[in-house]
């Protein structure tokens, strides 16, 4: 495998498209869509579409796995999910066409106790170890389900590293802070958004210069590649060659769902292909720009993505 995504707390994404979201009002939906979701699942879908040999792993409720199983089969993703007792959560996304954004309602997920956590963790490690080889990219993505602590992720990261994996972390809050403080070796790639980075550093980052300074501080902690997504304002990219502000092209926005996953997957695909920073992250941004133009999952032809990448402006910082 070239990429394995680990999603401890996947979700069924139920997207409801509205002309405009008005709090307190009754709405008639324009459309709805159910999609296998969770940060790692979204990354796996885009990575597979870009041609990477990809496996999706994590914990999946055994009462409603069908949507995920169908999605994996249709997209050419190896199913390495561990089934656990319960129902995978549903996250509701209200897509507002007038504003060009979405309102998310995220449920907590399957609850674990100490015994079930130990069993699920052992089963996950057993599923992953045969898939990991030297240089395999592994992502730890999204939130943790209730009852599962960061120690589980630390043990998982250690086991993956021991087999030669390159580690990408895409989570936030206290989980991210604890991982960075306690991992013996820093991750190879980190992609916080501005809010997650502000929470990590404990202060507002109002300007691009402050975001860049925080990204470079992460680099100084040993993290190889850092991309801080700024939504419609682009991204701050920090790597071995320096630090840049990447300004995206203006495109029509159908939904913001999946944009971050597309950025991660595109960047990883470019790294696997041998591109370096900032070019790899620019390709990831182009994948995100392509993703937000369509409600349905998937990407346009590769030539269209490369054309979007050519329109992204890099400014050294």
From TrEMBL:
InterPro entries: PfkB_dom (IPR011611), Ribo/fructo_kinase (IPR002139), Ribokinase-like (IPR029056), Tagatose/fructose_Pkinase (IPR017583)
A single GO cellular-component term on record: cytosol
Keyword Kinase carried by entry: yes
Protein name according to UniProt: Phosphofructokinase
Keywords on record: ATP-binding, Kinase, Nucleotide-binding, Transferase
Record keyword Kinase present: yes
Family assignment from sequence similarity: Belongs to the carbohydrate kinase PfkB family.
Coiled-coil residue spans: none
Superkingdom, natural source: Bacteria
One GO BP annotation of this record: small molecule metabolic process
Domain Carbohydrate kinase PfkB residues, every copy: 9-297
Example of a GO MF term: ATP binding
